[in-house]
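Worked problem 6 (solution included).
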Amino acid sequence: MSQLPLKLDAQGLVPAIVQDHVTGEIRMFAYASEAAVRCTLDTGRGTFWSRSRGELWQKGRVSGHEIPVVRVLADCDADVVIYSSDPLSPSCHSGAPSCFFQAFYGEQLGQASAQPQSALAGLEAQLASRERAADDAATVAAKIRDGAGELAQAIESESDERVVAEAADALYELAAGLRSRSIAMRRVLAEVDRRLEKRDSVPPQRASVLPPPPKPMQSAR
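Solution. The predicted structure is:
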């Protein structure tokens, strides 16, 4: 069996970062041996090397919080890998979705719940933290329709700055509409990802059904 093209450290390990392939959220960090990376590739389940126990460790085998891995990425030097995942449960041993829920405030660490990792997650968090009740479905729908019309008008005939502003308004109203139905933005992004995969997939037999190239024209002489 050939070795994987990885640059391992002196302990035979590489840092392995788990990332939600839909939202981009960083979920956890651990180390992986070549065998762990190979096991991840073979099984589609995030597998690491436990430095404390000195053995392979498949995340979630005991807790049930497995990490389904869509693909494994490597950096430019092949000495760090990313497990691009589709997490279905918390990734942190504390029970939090992500291990990265602390942030530096000056030189002090504090809870980072008010600073989600992405702008979309921040928007959802802001909407969820509003003290007033969410608008009813009819009100939200009317705002979305109005915003879509203004965005369309801006795209058709207004400046780029106006398009960006109207798009931001439309995105806000979309997030509010999803919240009114208790639908997470991740579900929408996952559907977009599913459609992209469906569109980009190429049937193996496609090459055999392509029409043959045209024959060269014969000389009339």
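Discussion: The two ends are 61 Å apart (CA to CA).
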